[in-house]
Amino acid sequence: MHLRASLLATSLAALGCAGAAPAPATALDGRDPVLAEVVADDPLAGYATTSTIRGRVVDATGAPIEGATFHAGVYTVTRTTPSDADGRFGVGIGHGYGTGTEIPLTVSAPGYLRARALVPLGEQNSTLVLQRGASLRSTLALTSGGEVPATVEVLLLSGSQTQVVLARNGRFEMTGFEPGSDRTVQARIDGYVPLWFPRLELVDGEACDLGELVLDPGGSLVVSAVDHFGVRIEGAHVEVRRKESPSFTWSALTDADGVARLEGLLPGADVLVRTTPPEGFGRSVGVERVERDLVVEPSEQRMDLVLHRAVVLRGELVWSGDCEAPWGEDRRLSVRVRGTNADGRPWTHDGAVPGTGVPLGERESVEFVVWAPPGVWDLALGVTREGERRGRLVPIGTFDVPVPTRGERSGELRIGRVQWP
Fold first, then answer.
1. Extended beta strands in 45-194, E state
2. Class of domain 311-420
3. Torsion sign over Cα 91, 94, 97, 98
4. Pairing of strands 219-226, 259-265
5. Can you identify the CATH homologous superfamily of domain 219-306?
6. How confident is the model at residue 112, as a pLDDT?
7. How many CB atoms are closer than 10 A to CB 21?
8. The whole model's pTM is what?
9. What secondary structure does DSSP assign to 392-406, as a single string?
10. 221 Cβ contact partners less than 8 Å away, ≥ 6 residues apart
């Protein structure tokens, strides 16, 4: 199971390190070892000019930080490498920026606050300082009372920050969290129910003790996905989202047998299970995606799904009013179709009346195009002019939308003329 989280910027760090002179670059065949990697097999080769920024990244004590990564906020090709054991780094900037231009650099390293600094292009001796911020610590235990594995990977989320730490012998401590009051922290461990800690006080330079984290395996869900012909679908994305707290999600991909297994689900939670086919499966993901409601039980549950490739519906829109069609001078319209039946979840899809370069009112009828899933559906249609809010949907009949031919990514059905309104 893959746990999803956002990695976002959280702080600003200072340029320069008080009382410490920048360390000179050491030579390796006449070149800085980090920059040697930048130049070798360099995608910037052949550009008219290429400039670099060099320097060191250190902590507040001046100790070098290894493995820091860099992102340059520029609109051109860049090439960077992580900092080495001495904290040295190099950033190559492609053509288009002159020497001395202040380049925004974002620096990230595990256990440190993400930092951003403006560094003049061409600077060869820059020092970037990362701060530790607040830290979180805890011990782990199992609901069964058994022994916690020797190493456990813990994902810690606070606001937009994410840190990954290895708990060894049931204990961990991780720095690099933005200080502040009323912070909410989420701890996620693969295979166990996520833990939630609201309203924490995180203090710069201090550790916040989360106490004992009791790991509960919770419920599990096994999803099997096939197409209409029973062919197993590999690579479908299955996401379980808690309705009460949409940020609480679990996700996995189906394997070669078309099966995805999600563990550590919160028992009793009312969730939405959304299964999206892999790229190349069909032609309209919005219609082909399958959604199911589920209340999580503390035991294993199964869900067998059939994913259908979409069918394009083509129809002709004919104005049936006594006066001139309201879209007489328009050159484009949007349409919305809603399908319902007694068995499945209703679906809605937006389509269009493709533009032809002439006012639509000059034509006897205009073609519209939308996507639909296979099945027998009661369809309702809405038509909207450019710049207007969507109006009501008007029933247009019941249609049997066929399954696309085996081996085809989509099908087609012509539904004929539709009188409007």
1. 51-58, 69-72, 78-80, 88-93, 102-108, 115-120, 126-129, 134-142, 151-158, 161-168, 171-177, 180-188
2. mainly beta
3. positive
4. antiparallel
5. Immunoglobulins (2.60.40.10)
6. 94
7. 9
8. 0.73
9. --EEEEEEEEPPPPT
10. 240, 261, 262, 265, 273, 294, 296, 300, 301, 302, 303
Q: State the CB neighbour count (10 A cutoff) for residue 66.
A: 13
Q: Find out whether 371 and 314 touch, Cβ atoms under 8 Å.
A: no
Question: What are the mean pLDDT values of the chain's consecutive 10-residue runs (421 residues total)?
Answer: 32 33 33 35 40 92 95 86 93 85 93 93 93 95 90 90 92 93 91 91 94 94 97 97 87 98 96 96 91 95 96 88 71 86 84 69 78 94 82 90 94 90 75
- 33-129 classified as CATH 2.60.40.1120: yes
Check if 33-129 and 134-215 are the same fold.
yes
Interacting residues of 322 by C-beta distance below 8 A, sequence separation 6+: none
pLDDT for 353 equals 80
Which CATH fold would you assign to the domain 134-215?
A: Immunoglobulin-like (2.60.40)
At 365, list the tokens.
């009828």
Domain boundaries along the sequence of the chain: 33-129, 134-215, 219-306, 311-420
Pair 334, 350: CB distance under 8 Å: yes
How far is it, in rounded angstroms, from Cα 83 to Cα 395?
A: 63
